[in-house]
């Protein structure tokens, strides 16, 4: 299987920097914003966005990790409800994930957020949008659009888990 790097560490950082500024500009600041990263790599990307926002705005934006397993519609066996709380009521939730593909993970994440409270708004930030949607879901903030075939795999690597940063495509 051939693997090719399509975004290097510098490109990944630049994409997150751009997304940070887009979030701040679109929301006219960061008041009432909560970042929610979909486990596992979305959680890491959300933490990085929170740090970047703090550098730009001098405000600590709350950042949470979300396990969507309980709300997935494509798993054979139901997962238990996570034992956590997430203060999203009346907040602008920026949902963060690494790769947007068919849209099912994002749908599950929106169900989870609604479980925790009625958000004022939900926005979606993804590092990579690869297309092939099965649901009418689109990202508000995109690091890079990478058209791909269904036979290809796109994998995001982050330093905190994989000892390197980058985005890779396998054929």
TrEMBL record:
GO terms for biological process: DNA-templated transcription termination. A motif (PRPP-binding) lies at residues 93-105. GO terms for molecular function: RNA binding; uracil phosphoribosyltransferase activity. Keywords: Glycosyltransferase, RNA-binding, Transcription, Transcription regulation, Transcription termination, Transferase. The keyword Transcription applies. It catalyses: UMP + diphosphate = 5-phospho-alpha-D-ribose 1-diphosphate + uracil. Belongs to the purine/pyrimidine phosphoribosyltransferase family. PyrR subfamily. Homodimer and homohexamer; in equilibrium. This is Bifunctional protein PyrR. It comes from Longicatena caecimuris.
């Amino acid at each position: 299987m051939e693997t090719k790097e399509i975004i290097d560490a510098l490109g990944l950082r630049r994409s997150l920097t751009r997304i940070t500024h887009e979030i701040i500009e679109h929301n006219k600041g960061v008041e009432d914003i909560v970042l929610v990263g979909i486990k596992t790599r979305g959680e890491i990307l959300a933490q990085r966005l929170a740090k970047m926002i703090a550098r730009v705005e001098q405000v600590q934006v709350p950042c949470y990790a979300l396990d969507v397993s309980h709300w997935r519609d494509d798993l054979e066996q139901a997962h238990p409800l996570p034992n956590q709380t997430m203060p999203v009521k009346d907040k602008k939730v920026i949902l963060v994930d690494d790769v947007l593909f068919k849209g099912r993970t994002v749908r599950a994440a929106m169900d989870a957020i609604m479980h925790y409270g009625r958000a004022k708004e939900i926005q979606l930030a993804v590092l990579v949008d690869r297309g092939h949607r099965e649901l009418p879901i689109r990202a508000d903030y995109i690091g890079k659009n990478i058209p791909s075939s269904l036979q290809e795999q796109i994998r995001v690597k982050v330093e905190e888990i994989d000892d390197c940063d980058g985005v890779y495509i396998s054929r």
